[in-house]
């Protein structure tokens, strides 16, 4: 996720520079420039998303009998331009997964917070509109406010709001202001700004897009000035009106199209209006066009990080839906867990009870691989095409799972859900955990009380576990604190010099099938 975010920021930055070159050329020709920034904002969202996730099927024109080749758009980019070449990705998988989860949650929170702020801002504006007086300025119906405007408010039925001081100004200045705001309405500027704000909600952490939005607002005002003057508005009167507006700053009412902006920007608008349109020299125009085009091509060639496949040597194949459907079903992992295998289009998804859904990729007609958890599931298939056994291979351990019917799977899941709801410990789990901790401290756990996979993991980690537990001193209390999301019992083990949190899965035959420990102070 971190590398993908860096990739999206780079693409947005390059597109912003491309739009800046195009805007500079448009300014010299007195042409509209806001569309360049709209395109920059839109493509800053589309290119990273499309290049990372879209695949296309390339037909075999000369060999119709050969199946179509699936090509991911990222394959047509340059790997030398990938953020993976700049960011250290040699991070432990557990840390990387935790970081990704934090970034995803932060992304969701930021988008929701921005959406909430926009919603509150809209409600606040609607509330203030109800307090404004209605009147007529230069023959146009407007809202009259004490200190807001000139601006356009509303999207479906946009209306002009002007400050009270404008009603006491000359008719020429009133006409200039109303002409400016009417031009905004005619050009659809309020709707354009609203669309771009909604787009930014989708990627609020991408700071180049915020700068693009700022440039878009400036371009909207400059384009509006050009339209008003082209429509016959007197230049001197219009310039004096801009100065008058700049001397009386409006209260902020959100991102709306309007004549009232910062004084520095009003000065810039005046300078632009005083410059006559000039035909750029051929070499200058060619340079700006080529630069803008080259930057867009560069942005499209930046290679996104592969968010689906691992960096190892696993080779994937494409399987027909009817072959994948052989895997689809439910498998019993143990008394607490069921594996569900489903197909979503061309995607193969697996979900263990209480865990997140994982995407898998076929390596053969009987084997799939999940790069995010580095686990392989192989399927034994009989002559009738039915799965007789599924085996999970992960971190040197194997877990055999038998296919079961949906009703049996739902019964196991209901048992786990009820256990979580009632928060009741499995009978005998406390005694089993005491025995396990005592064996680890002594350096000779009873492996007969552990499942084969847990026994192998315990043998590998025994020196480290024993050292950590011995540093904590003698076990004093063992307290049941609840049932976790997978139906495992959770205990707090308090020692002389700290405590640990244990999660335990005890089967009905007294065998510990799973155990996890985290350290405390």
TrEMBL record:
Transmembrane intervals: 6-23, 35-56, 104-125, 192-211
Leader peptide range in chain numbering: none
Pfam families for this protein: DUF3471, Peptidase_M56
Sequence ranges assigned to domain Peptidase S12 Pab87-related C-terminal in this UniProt record: 321-395
InterPro entries tied to this protein: Beta-lactam_resp_regulator, Peptidase_M56, Peptidase_S12_Pab87-rel_C
Keyword Acyltransferase: no
Peptidase M56 domain sequence ranges: 12-271
Superkingdom of origin: Bacteria
Keywords from the named record: Membrane, Transmembrane, Transmembrane helix
Keyword Cytoplasm appears in the UniProt entry: no
PANTHER family in the cross-refs: POSSIBLE SENSOR-TRANSDUCER PROTEIN BLAR (PTHR34978), SLR0241 PROTEIN (PTHR34978:SF3)
Protein's name in the database: Peptidase M56 domain-containing protein
């Amino acid at each position: 996720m971190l590398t993908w975010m860096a990739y999206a920021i780079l693409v947005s930055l390059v597109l912003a520079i491309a739009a800046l070159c195009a805007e500079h050329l448009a300014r010299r020709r007195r042409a509209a420039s806001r569309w360049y920034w709209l395109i920059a904002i839109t493509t800053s969202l589309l290119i990273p998303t499309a290049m990372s996730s879209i695949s296309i099927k390339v037909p075999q024109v000369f060999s119709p009998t050969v199946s179509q080749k699936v090509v991911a758009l990222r394959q047509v980019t340059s790997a030398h331009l990938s953020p993976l070449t700049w960011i250290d990705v040699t991070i432990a998988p557990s840390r990387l997964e935790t970081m990704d989860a934090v970034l995803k949650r932060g992304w969701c929170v930021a988008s929701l917070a921005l959406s909430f702020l926009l919603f509150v801002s809209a409600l606040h504006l609607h509330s203030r509109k109800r307090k404004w007086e209605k009147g007529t300025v230069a023959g146009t119906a407007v809202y009259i406010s004490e200190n807001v405007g000139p601006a356009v408010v509303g999207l479906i039925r946009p209306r002009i709001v002007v400050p009270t001081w404008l009603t006491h100004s000359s008719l020429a200045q009133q006409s200039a202001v109303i002409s400016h705001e009417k031009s905004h309405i005619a050009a659809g500027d309020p709707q354009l700004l609203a669309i771009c704000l909604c787009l930014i909600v989708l990627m609020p952490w991408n700071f180049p897009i915020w700068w693009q939005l700022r440039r878009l607002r400036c371009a909207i005002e400059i384009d509006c000035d050009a339209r008003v003057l082209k429509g016959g508005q007197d230049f001197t009167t219009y310039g004096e009106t801009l100065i008058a507006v700049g001397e009386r700053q409006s209260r902020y009412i959100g991102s709306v199209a309007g004549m009232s902006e910062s004084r520095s920007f009003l000065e810039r608008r005046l300078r632009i209006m005083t410059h006559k349109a000039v035909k750029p020299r051929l070499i200058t125009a060619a340079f700006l066009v080529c630069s803008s085009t080259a930057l867009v091509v560069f942005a499209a060639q930046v290679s996104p990080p592969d968010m689906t496949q691992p960096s190892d040597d696993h080779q994937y194949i494409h399987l027909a839906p009817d072959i994948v459907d052989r895997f689809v079903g439910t498998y019993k992992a143990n008394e607490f867990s069921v594996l569900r295998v489903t197909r979503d289009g061309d995607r193969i998804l697996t979900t263990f009870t209480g865990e997140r859904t994982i995407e898998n990729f076929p390596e053969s007609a009987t084997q799939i691989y999940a790069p995010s958890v580095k686990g392989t599931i192989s399927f034994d298939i009989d002559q009738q095409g039915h799965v007789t056994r599924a085996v999970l291979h992960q971190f040197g351990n194997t877990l055999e799972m038998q296919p079961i019917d949906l009703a049996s799977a739902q019964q196991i899941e209901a048992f786990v859900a009820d256990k979580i709801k009632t928060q009741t410990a499995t009978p005998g789990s406390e005694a089993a955990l005491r025995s396990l901790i005592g064996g680890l401290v002594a350096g000779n756990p009873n492996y007969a009380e552990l499942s084969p996979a847990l026994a192998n993991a315990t043998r590998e980690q025994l020196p480290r576990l024993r050292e950590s537990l011995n540093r904590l001193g003698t076990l004093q209390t063992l307290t049941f604190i609840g049932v976790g999301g997978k139906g495992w019992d959770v205990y707090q083990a308090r020692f002389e010099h700290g405590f640990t949190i244990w999660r335990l899965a005890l089967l009905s035959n007294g065998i510990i099938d799973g155990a996890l420990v985290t350290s405390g102070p």
